[in-house]
Structure to design on (741 residues):
C-alpha cells in the first residue's frame, strides 16, 4: 500500500540523507521522494511515498520528528489531498502512424515539448494513476526514454502546512 | 574582540559549557586542538589507550554525574574507534559529546590520509551530528551539540571539525545566549486531556504495577515516583537501567523485571490490570513475547520521547513530557488508594524462591558469583558506584547488589557492550572522585578493554576491579547449555594471570578461590591505595536464574534448580 508523507525540513546539507537513512533502517521501500523549496526561506519540502501500511507510516512519522532538522510532518494518507506527478516520455515516431501518436496526445492532455527526427518528447502531468494510464497507452508505440519526477502532494482546503512557528 | 583560532574556540566553548574533564587520544587532524589545550589548565585531559575507551569513559562520566561527558579523537581510525562507544551511549540515552578532527576541508572526498566520513558512519547512532568546515561555525555548533546532548531524551552528539577550521582565526567572544534550534522540541507541556485519561485508568485499577525505567533518574523524579507509589500503595518493578531510581529496600520495590527478573515480579506484571510505564521503553528483554505480554493490563505510558509511545507495546493512554513534572501533576489530582490485597497476592507468589536462592546454599567450598557480588554489597554497605560489563555477572549484579541511590549502577543495557565496564568506571571515578567505585566484569569482557588499566594507573585513580572469572564466555555458554545441547562452541576462554597483569601495571592484584576469603580480600582491596584487581575464580558452569528465554512468554521462566541439585552439580573450582 502506498502512503504519502510530507515533511518540512531545514534546508541544510545532509538532511535528505538523514531522512532516507531513517526510512532505509526500517526497511521500507521508498516509491518516490521529492525535495524542493517552499515559500519560506531556509525551508525545504519533501514528499515521501513509501510502501507501507498505516501503522508503519505512523512509526515513520514519529521517527521523522526525532530528526533535529525536521520541522513538520503531515500524513496525507488520512486526509483529502491533491497529488501530482510529471513524466517526460520520449516516444519513437518512426515505424508507425504519426497520427496515432498525435491522437493519444490529444486524448490524454499530454504536451509535445520536443520533436526530433526519430522521436517526439511528451510531457504528462496529473494524478499518478493518470500518468500511469498515459504511459500504458504510449508503450505499444515504443518508449525510448522516460523520466518521472515522483509525486508531490498537498492537502485540500484552507489548512496550510507551514514552518512559520519554527522561525 | 580578541583573535582566536578554531582550536582555541573549541576549548573556550568547553570551558563555558562547564567541562572540566575530557577523554581522548591525539592524532594528525586534531593536533591543533591538542596544541591549544595546553593553554586551558582547567580542563583535565585523560589519555586513553584506545578511542573506544574514551567514548565509554565519557559515557560513564555522564551516567555517574548527569553532566555531559566529552570524548576527543582524531580523524579516520580515531573516529571509527569511537563508534561502539557512541552506539552504547545512544541506546542508553547518555549525554555525550564527541569531538573529532577531520582532514582539511579541501581534501574531503579525496581519500586523504586518515580520512573517513564519520558523520555518515555515525548518522544512525547519534542523536545528531555535524561536520564543521568554517571557524565561524565552531561555537554555534558546539553550543547546539551540548544543548542537544543533555536536553529532552539525552543522547550522543558528534562534532567533526576540519583541521583548517581549527587552524583559522577570527575575532571571537563567547555568546552566552541560550541555544534555539528551529525544529527541536525537547519536551512539550502535558495537556489536561492526557492527564484526565491517565487518572481515569489509575482510578479504575485494582491490580496496578509501576514499571520504572531510567527516565525516573534522568528526569530527577525519584522522590516524586516514591510519593506517587505510596499514594496509590502500588508496587514498582524496575528495568535494569532504572535500578537505583527507587531504593531497593523500599517496601513497594519488587526488584528487576524481565528476562532475569524474579518470578514474582514477572507474574505480577502478567497478572496486573494496569501497567504504568514511567521512562522506560518496553525493551524485548523486559517484555518477552509482546503478544502475550500483560494480557489483562491496560497500559499508561509516560515518556519524554514521543516516538516511544506505541512502539513496542500499544498504550491505552500516553503522556509525552517530563516524567517528574507529570508525576507532580498526577499526585496533585489523585486521591490515596489501597492495594493491600494485590500486594499480599504478589508476596504470596514468592513461594519457595527464597529457599532456592543461592544465598541460602551452605558453603560447599565452591565460590559462586552471586556470593561474591552479595558480599561486596554487604561490605560496601550498598554505597558504592558499581560499573558492570555485560553478561552473567551483570545480571547477578542486578540481582545481588541492592542499589539504594540513583546513578549507583552504571551498565550497558540496550547495546550490551562487552568491554564497557573498565573504561566507564574510570569515567565514573573522574566524575565522582570521592565515591567508592567497583568494576564487576567477566573474564571475557575485561580482556576486551584491559588496556585501559594503564589509563587508571597513569591517572592515579582508585577503582576496584572484581573479575568474575569462570573460564567461559559465561552468558553465551549458558545459552549453549540451555538451547544448543551444551555444545560449547568458542566459549571456553583462557585468560592471562590477572594478578600478574595487575603487577605489570604497578597495581595490587589478588586471587580468591574460596568463599571464606572474599570478605578479607575485599576489605584489603578497599584499604589499598590505587586501582586494584581481584581475580575471583568462580564456579565455571553456573547459570543465571530465573530466565525467560528470548521471545518466550514473560511468565514462562526457567526457575532456579533445587538447592540440592545446585550443590551436587558444582564442578571442581579451578
Amino acid at each position: 500500500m502506498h502512503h504519502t508523507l510530507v515533511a518540512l525540513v531545514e534546508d541544510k546539507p545532509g538532511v535528505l540523507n538523514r531522512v532516507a537513512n531513517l526510512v532505509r533502517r526500517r526497511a521500507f521501500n521508498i516509491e518516490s521522494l521529492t525535495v524542493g523549496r517552499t515559500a519560506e526561506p531556509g525551508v525545504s519540502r519533501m514528499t515521501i511515498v513509501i510502501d507501507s501500511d498505516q501503522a508503519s507510516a505512523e512509526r515513520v512519522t514519529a521517527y521523522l520528528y526525532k530528526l533535529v532538522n525536521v520541522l513538520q510532518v503531515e500524513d496525507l494518507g488520512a486526509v483529502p489531498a491533491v497529488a501530482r506527478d510529471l513524466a517526460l516520455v520520449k516516444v519513437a515516431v518512426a515505424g508507425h502512424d504519426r497520427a496515432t501518436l498525435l491522437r493519444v496526445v490529444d486524448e490524454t492532455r499530454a504536451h509535445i515539448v520536443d520533436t526530433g527526427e526519430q522521436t517526439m518528447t511528451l510531457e504528462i502531468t496529473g494524478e499518478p494513476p493518470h500518468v500511469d494510464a498515459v504511459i500504458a497507452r504510449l508503450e505499444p508505440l515504443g518508449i525510448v526514454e522516460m523520466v518521472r519526477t515522483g509525486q508531490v502532494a498537498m492537502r485540500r482546503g484552507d489548512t496550510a502546512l507551514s514552518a512559520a512557528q519554527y522561525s | 574582540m580578541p583573535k582566536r583560532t578554531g582550536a582555541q574556540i573549541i576549548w573556550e566553548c568547553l570551558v563555558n559549557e562547564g567541562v572540566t574533564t575530557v577523554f581522548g587520544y591525539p592524532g594528525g587532524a586534531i593536533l591543533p586542538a591538542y596544541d591549544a589545550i595546553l593553554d586551558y589548565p582547567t580542563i583535565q585531559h585523560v589519555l586513553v589507550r584506545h578511542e573506544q575507551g574514551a567514548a565509554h569513559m565519557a559515557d560513564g562520566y555522564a551516567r555517574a554525574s548527569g553532566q555531559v561527558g566529552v570524548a576527543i579523537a582524531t580523524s579516520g581510525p580515531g573516529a571509527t574507534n569511537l563508534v561502539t562507544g557512541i552506539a552504547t551511549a545512544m541506546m542508553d540515552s547518555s549525554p555525550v559529546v564527541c569531538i573529532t578532527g577531520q582532514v582539511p576541508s579541501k581534501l574531503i572526498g579525496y581519500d586523504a590520509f586518515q580520512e573517513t566520513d564519520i558523520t555518515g558512519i555515525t548518522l544512525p547512532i547519534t542523536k545528531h551530528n555535524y561536520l564543521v568546515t568554517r571557524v565561524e561555525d565552531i561555537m554555534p555548533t558546539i553550543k547546539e551539540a551540548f544543548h542537544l546532548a543533555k536536553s529532552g531524551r539525552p543522547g550522543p552528539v558528534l562534532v567533526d571539525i576540519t583541521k583548517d577550521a581549527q587552524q583559522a582565526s577570527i575575532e571571537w567572544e563567547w555568546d552566552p545566549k541560550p541555544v534555539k534550534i528551529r525544529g527541536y522540541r525537547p519536551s512539550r507541556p502535558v495537556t489536561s486531556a492526557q492527564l484526565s485519561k491517565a487518572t481515569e485508568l489509575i482510578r479504575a485499577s485494582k491490580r496496578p504495577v509501576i514499571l520504572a525505567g531510567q527516565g525516573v533518574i534522568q528526569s530527577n523524579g525519584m522522590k516524586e515516583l516514591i510519593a506517587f507509589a505510596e499514594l496509590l500503595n502500588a508496587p514498582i518493578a524496575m528495568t535494569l537501567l532504572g535500578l537505583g531510581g527507587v531504593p531497593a529496600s523500599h517496601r513497594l520495590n519488587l526488584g528487576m523485571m524481565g528476562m532475569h527478573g524474579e518470578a514474582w515480579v514477572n507474574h505480577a506484571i502478567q497478572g496486573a490490570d494496569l501497567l504504568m510505564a514511567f521512562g522506560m521503553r518496553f525493551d524485548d528483554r523486559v517484555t518477552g513475547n509482546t503478544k502475550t505480554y500483560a494480557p489483562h493490563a491496560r497500559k499508561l505510558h509516560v515518556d519524554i520521547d514521543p516516538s516511544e509511545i506505541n512502539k513496542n507495546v500499544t498504550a491505552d493512554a500516553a503522556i509525552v513530557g517530563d516524567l517528574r513534572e507529570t508525576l507532580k501533576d498526577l499526585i496533585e489530582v489523585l486521591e490515596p488508594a489501597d492495594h493491600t490485597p494485590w500486594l499480599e497476592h504478589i508476596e504470596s507468589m514468592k513461594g519457595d524462591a527464597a529457599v532456592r536462592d543461592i544465598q541460602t546454599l551452605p558453603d560447599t567450598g565452591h565460590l559462586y558469583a552471586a556470593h561474591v557480588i552479595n558480599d561486596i554489597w554487604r561490605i560496601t554497605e550498598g554505597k558504592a558506584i558499581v560499573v558492570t560489563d555485560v553478561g552473567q555477572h551483570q545480571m547477578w549484579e542486578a540481582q545481588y547488589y541492592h542499589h539504594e541511590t540513583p546513578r549507583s549502577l552504571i551498565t550497558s543495557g540496550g547495546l550490551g557492550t562487552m568491554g564497557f565496564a573498565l573504561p566507564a568506571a574510570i569515567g565514573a571515578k573522574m566524575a565522582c572522585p570521592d565515591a567508592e567505585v567497583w568494576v564487576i566484569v567477566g573474564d571475557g569482557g575485561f580482556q576486551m578493554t584491559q588496556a585501559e588499566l594503564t589509563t587508571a594507573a597513569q591517572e592515579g585513580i582508585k577503582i576496584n576491579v572484581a573479575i568474575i572469572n569462570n573460564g567461559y564466555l559465561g552468558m553465551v555458554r549458558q545459552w549453549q547449555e540451555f538451547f544448543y545441547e551444551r555444545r560449547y562452541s568458542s566459549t571456553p576462554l583462557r585468560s592471562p594471570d590477572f594478578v600478574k597483569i595487575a603487577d605489570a601495571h604497578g597495581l595490587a592484584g589478588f586471587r580468591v578461590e574460596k568463599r571464606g576469603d572474599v570478605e578479607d580480600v575485599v576489605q584489603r582491596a578497599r584499604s589499598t591505595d590505587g586501582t586494584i584487581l581481584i581475580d575471583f575464580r568462580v564456579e565455571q558452569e553456573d547459570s543465571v536464574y530465573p530466565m525467560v528465554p528470548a521471545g518466550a512468554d514473560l511468565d514462562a521462566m526457567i526457575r532456579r534448580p533445587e538447592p540440592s541439585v545446585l550443590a551436587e552439580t558444582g564442578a571442581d573450582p579451578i
Observations:
- Chain B touches chain A through 18 residues (CB under 8 Å).
- Confidence is low (pLDDT under 50) at residues 566-574 of chain B.
- DSSP finds 25 helices and 20 strands in chain B.
- The two ends of chain B are 68 Å apart (CA to CA).
